[in-house]
Design goal:
This protein has 7 helices and 21 strands. The chain has 431 residues and is an alpha+beta fold. The protein has 2 domains: 158 residues, Immunoglobulin-like; 241 residues, Aminopeptidase, CATH 3.40.630.20. Strand 1, helix 3 and strand 2 form a beta-alpha-beta unit. The longest helix has 23 residues.
Length: 431
């Protein structure tokens, strides 16, 4: 296929025609997630470590999220499978079709908007003894492949990824006697003062939160610690669990764990958006560790606000292996039922385009067919790496090649050029 440059008018027209056609034939379902093997069907011997065998059997590994004071408990609430704490319903089951079940645990506070919140109550309480007593049974029950703990900091709009967690012998007193952890230090397997580092993809988290354009001050704290209070205590539990289960031969292998301090002034909706960006980043990182056919995907180029109220984000799921041919492009936060096109090119760019930014260079290629987001503004777009344009012609992907993808979508309510676009995703393909 010949590489093509689409003008603003041509792209807007193509999306408008696609939207009209979609309206005439009715809403089209999103591309289905890859078929999973039924657990009662023996597929034959499965190679690899325990987690790879688990995935091969269609069994979804779990990811554990914890929150403490607001906004963090509210930011993870929709991942609770407790109908009392989450009456809107659990969204963590095979979240976004990514192959993981996500569970969240957090306390409740009265009022929910508290500033001096204390211990709270629920399946996780802000207390040294309760934290330990609650954390270990929860983690041991779901055997998380990744753990992300969240708590609040006074910095108003920060998204601070902590690097350092210490096995302290002395902590800041909590709210209820005994005021110190029992025992202290909590981890008898290593000397007092031992440093455990974050095992999260910290730089990728920061980059992706900034690209989401949420108005947050995202950064990594390389020096100091997570504060010596309950925030560092729950953070230490997460990285401690990961260290215990760090071996790929462990049936409870835990690939990643770490802590994020969230600014006290971050609105609940923004905090939830940033949790989801962080979670997507961690999931892709875990995929690259568990499955060697999944190569890192670099998200770049900040998204721009659209009429849905936030910026649409493009991420990937599945393998970047050409032979595996399971790559999917996932888009979140477009307007509902918006027609859209997946585009790609051989280079990056950053120039005004429609109501947003074009992140791919000229000339670029469209990947048919035109699709549409669902009622929640979500797109699950599978691609066929064996068919044109990705599988043949001048724009064919080859092992070792890097191509740059972006998704453009119709946004009539946004006015202006009547279309907008996502961030960019740099994908390097393997054999």
């Amino acid at each position: 296929m010949k590489l093509r440059h689409l003008s603003l008018a041509a792209l807007a027209g193509a999306l408008l025609l696609a939207a009209d056609a979609a309206a005439q034939r009715g809403a089209q379902p999103a591309a289905p997630a890859p078929t999973q093997v039924a657990p009662n069907v023996y597929p034959g011997p499965i190679q690899g470590n325990a987690r790879q065998q688990q995935l091969g059997l269609g069994q979804r590994p779990a990811i554990m999220l914890t929150g403490y004071w607001p906004p963090t408990n509210e930011a993870v609430r929709r991942f609770s499978d407790d109908p009392v704490q989450n009456p809107l319903g659990w969204i963590g089951s095979d979240w976004e079709g990514r192959g993981y079940d996500v569970y969240a645990y957090f306390p409740e506070f009265t009022p929910p908007t508290c500033t001096s919140c204390g211990t709270g109550s629920g399946d996780l309480e802000v207390d040294y003894q309760d934290t330990s007593a609650d954390f270990w049974p929860l983690a041991d029950a779901i055997k998380p492949i990744a753990i992300i703990t969240f708590s609040r900091t006074n910095a108003t709009l920060s998204w601070e990824v902590e690097m350092n967690q210490y096995n302290r012998s002395t902590w800041i007193n909590d709210y209820v006697a005994p005021l110190q952890p029992t025992p202290a230090p909590p981890d008898a397997s290593v000397p007092a003062g031992t440093l455990r580092l974050s095992a999260l993809p910290v730089q990728e988290i920061i980059d992706n939160v900034l690209d989401a354009n949420l108005g947050l001050n995202a950064f990594i704290c390389f020096s100091g610690s997570a504060g010596g209070f309950l925030s560092e205590f729950i953070a230490y539990h997460g990285v401690w669990y990961q260290a215990i289960h760090a071996s790929p031969s462990d049936p409870a292998w835990c690939v990643a764990a770490g802590h994020v301090h969230v600014g006290s002034g971050v609105p609940w909706g923004k905090a939830q958006d940033a949790v989801e960006v962080t979670l997507r980043t961690v999931i892709h990182y875990v995929d690259t560790i568990v499955d060697p056919t999944v190569l890192p995907v670099d998200l770049y180029c900040p998204t721009t606000t659209n009429s849905a109220g936030t910026g649409a984000m493009l991420t990937t799921a599945g393998s970047t292996s050409i032979s595996a041919n399971s790559l999917r492009f996932l888009v979140t936060d477009t307007p509902p039922s918006a027609a859209g096109l997946l585009l790609y090119s051989a280079g990056q760019a950053s120039v005004p385009w429609g109501n947003g930014t074009r992140c791919i260079a000229n000339p670029f290629v469209r990947v048919n067919p035109v699709g549409a987001s669902n009622a929640q503004g979500f797109v699950d777009r599978a691609v066929d790496l064996s068919s044109s344009p990705l599988g043949a012609g001048t724009a064919a992907v080859t092992a070792g090649s890097t191509w740059y993808f972006q998704y453009a979508f119709r946004d009539v309510a946004g006015g202006g050029a009547l279309f907008d676009s996502t961030n960019g995703a740099a994908v390097t393909f393997g054999p």
